[in-house]
Amino acid sequence: MAAVLAVVTGCVSTGAGKGPAHGGTHASRPETGTTTMRGITLPSWYRTDYDSPAAPRYLRGIKATGARWVTFTPTWYQKRVTDSAPHTTEETASDASLRRIVQRAHAAGLKVMIKPHVDLPGDADRAEIRPRDRAAWFAAYRRFITHYADLAADTGAEQLAVGTELAGVSGDTTAWTKVIEAVRDHYDGPLTYAANYDEYQHIHFWKDLDLIGIDAYWPLAEKATTDPALLNRAWAPIRQKLAAYSARRHRRILFTEAGYVSQRGTTTAPYSWTVSTHPANAEQAAAYRALLDSFEGRKWWAGVCWWMWDDWPDSGETPARLAYTPRGKPAEEVLRRKWAG
């Protein structure tokens, strides 16, 4: 989701079982062509989040929805949009904690996608990153992403995203091709890139990846609504365009993120944490239902990884009753009926 922090039997990202090894060739991977991701993101905002005592409980809750995948988001930061390199901070999940949470997810029977982020301070939009020295930035980015490619290989993570919503630099196809080649030397699993919903058509390196990734925050309504017919109609032209795009690019499309706050008007601006201060659990649930009703069963659609399960205890800036989490809300029941039922 560019403006915010942020499966038939699995989330396109996470998986159980033995993981890929280093240095292999880009072989055919049936799972990217035959399965649909049922996934939920568990982001981190601090170095030790993934070691939180809440982590096992969160993973159990994710599994209980019927999800088969979980996505983890280690994040590096840069102070200015023009900086030439991202770096770790106290808000970056430690490698040790990331390794442990992947192990816990696998033990819980969940597959894993690692989806590293590069962010800016506060509410600044990572899509605005436009480094003054692009060559230096991409060299630093290759070191950043191959670090997580190694970690994904070592932990057996089932999928890796090579980038997330970096519209300010994603038009540099040659540089991204080199990034992807470097990642392939470190990790043999399926790769995607998480493009924002208004970015994906400007990406020209999909042929080098296994899946087209889209963070699916399309506005669906002009005013607050729980009308399923209206929401389904809103998805229809988007779905048709995506089906055609998938056919042209010869890749399935994964919703690497999709989500809705439980606030009145969330369907008018799904990318916003602050649509209103009025809780709207029914609208959030209706939006969940409409997305799944509109896309499940489409062969070109590779599934969805919902943003997000929950904030860590005492870390959320948005009260849980207004936040993206579906936990304990009607939206969770939608998932349970659709996925676990």
From TrEMBL:
Gene3D superfamilies: Glycosidases (3.20.20.80). Residues 15-36 are annotated as: Disordered. It holds the Pfam family GH113. Coiled coil: none annotated. InterPro entries: GH, GH113. Transmembrane segments: none annotated. This is GTA TIM-barrel-like domain-containing protein. It comes from Streptomyces diastatochromogenes.
